[in-house]
């Protein structure tokens, strides 16, 4: 008989790790999904067999009684999964909560079959699956809400900030979580919709759910941006802060573009791509400002104009010496510091190097052409330490500890 097929000590326990261990990651989700499908098939077969041997007026009540233990075991396992998910939320293990999604999707897909096979049973029996679905939707929606809040409130700690300004772990984790949601867009959207009113999420259109999911993703990205901006202030060097934000914004943008996330974001935020590109450009400009303390030494500002053949005054010679020395020292210092910084994106790194190289080389070439042959010192090699191409080579080694 069917009652022996899905007892707590048989198929469920043989495939599912007891969730009392508070370890959601050990649960065999596929096993539970197969158990749900098996219950439906076996219940259908059981009812067919029952109609052949039980008088018609006793069939529904008998069937209701026969399936109770197996159905209860199935629901208990579902409740245990929900309980484990709640514990995962409490310890901020949001990836573990994702195990609810495939189960919930399967339960909602099989609900019509459930309803059909249980149509003659008591109301309490019929309500068990809808109750489990509601519980999973509520827990899942709460997990999504807590995840968004956690992204916003993740603390700024100097010890866990990347020393080289690379992508923060919070950014990669947040994007990974959002990418994993892509496999369950309809389910996640329905979760969010279920919390809008007391009505079932199924009463909403898929487009409504999609808009809710888009709004949610934009909220997470907005919270992430605010948190990154706060974290960037941990750096004392504004240029390193800019590199940090540049790397993270670029990582977010590239990740969005490589997945369907960008399409989801665009449902409610049409200009998201452009906004990220503008943010990236702002950080590049901020970074380039760090080189002004180098190029200002060799700019035309406040430099005297020397007439050919006219002997330089001591003060004028000293000005030129200071300009060369200031440039040399600044160049060496910045190259040493920024060589240890990181820009993981090869294209972005090359573009920033090239732009900075062009600016510095052109400014230095003009300065060198104007004052390199001026007799301002008896030891020109002490001040004219670098050729233009050597300066370019030094800048080419920025953001590369192996160079």
Automatic annotation (TrEMBL):
SUPFAM superfamilies: Cullin repeat-like. This is Exocyst complex component 7. Residues 32-396 form the Exocyst complex subunit Exo70 C-terminal domain. One of its GO terms (molecular function) is phosphatidylinositol-4,5-bisphosphate binding. One of its GO terms (biological process) is exocytosis. Gene3D superfamilies: Exocyst complex component Exo70. Pfam families: Exo70_C.
